[in-house]
Amino acid sequence: MTFDPASLKYDANGLIPCIAQQEGTGEVLMMAWMNAEAVAKTLDTKRVTYWSRSRQAFWIKGDTSGHIQDLIDLRVDCDRDCLLAIVDQTGAACHTNRRVCFYTSVISGDEVELMSPMSDT
Amino acid sequence: MTFDPASLKYDANGLIPCIAQQEGTGEVLMMAWMNAEAVAKTLDTKRVTYWSRSRQAFWIKGDTSGHIQDLIDLRVDCDRDCLLAIVDQTGAACHTNRRVCFYTSVISGDEVELMSPMSDT
Question: What is the dihedral of CA A85, A88, A94, A95, to 10 degrees?
């Protein structure tokens, strides 16, 4: 069956969450949002492209930082309301310059920082 | 710093997305939603508890199916608006009885099913 981005289930703002995971290591890098056009652009260009809710604009990941996400595979979940992008992430996925956005653990009852920002070397 | 579920950023419906990842293998199992009370219950019980948007009720994962998620770690992202639960998943995470919900690949332009439902043995 041919895939049509319009067949996905978007929220009231026309957005669908997309989880980015590093191929090979399996690291969950980040979660951001796409609209139907961002899904199509991501598939067309193989450069992961989100919709920035704060800027209300397309966000071609890494276009300013150089921290691009090359698309390896794009997967749809059973309810068609969430995406999983398998990617090859250059450098830090997080705007704090950490490899991943999920660097704070809370299971102990306290907030524990699991990793530091990457060096710029 | 002591973690307070109220310090997270919830959407207009009082919900935050939570990605579940299998410890060890790194499989991204599913994504579902929590409210502040579900976050607290998850941390208190170490059994991952979502908020079912369709049923408008707490959803203790596996309570009816037996496919429970034991919590290993709970992580907060940089923007405090997404969670990552590192879990030990018993059996299938997906209601279709597949191990993960993200079993459909669309990168080829066609929809390709990557895995079958698990056997009940």
Answer: -110
